[in-house]
Design goal:
The protein has a two-stranded antiparallel ribbon. The protein contains 5 helices and 2 strands, in the order αααββαα. Strand 1 (about 50) and strand 2 (about 55-60) form a beta hairpin. With about 110 residues, it is mostly helical. It starts with a helix and ends with a helix. Helix 2 (about 20-25) crosses helix 3 (about 30-45). Helices cover about 70% and strands about 5% of the residues.
């Protein structure tokens, strides 16, 4: 399973349209169809109900379960990017003599917590 497969599935479940999902990612509609087929083969379950006469789709029960996990995976990837980006930010470190830190720091913290 590829990360882009999860992104495509998530967007398809949101837009409920193969063609709109393809347009969103600037790929062909058969690309989206192929990805969904690959996911369904891997899961050994149908994830999407297709109503081709009306051009509508809906998630099966297995699709709803996969959607829930797909959203969590995508959120974790975003969180990882943000955390790694913060590692690249400059930091400021300062030190205080222990006696000053013990006296003033608790008074300062009261102003920020509460």
């Amino acid at each position: 399973m590829k990360f882009t497969d999860i992104e495509y599935f998530d967007k398809l479940s949101e837009l409920e349209s193969f063609s709109k999902t393809a347009i969103f990612f600037n790929v062909s509609q058969p690309t989206i169809s192929f990805v969904i087929q690959r996911l369904e083969n891997e899961m050994k379950k149908t994830l999407i109900n297709r109503n081709q006469s009306h051009g509508e789709i809906s998630l099966t029960e297995a699709g709803k379960v996969f959607e829930k996990h797909a959203k969590k995976i995508l959120q974790e990837v975003v969180a990882a990017h943000e955390e790694i980006d913060r590692m690249n930010q400059p930091t400021i470190e300062f030190g205080l003599p222990q006696i000053i830190g013990n006296y003033y720091l608790p008074k300062l913290v009261k102003h920020f917590v509460g």
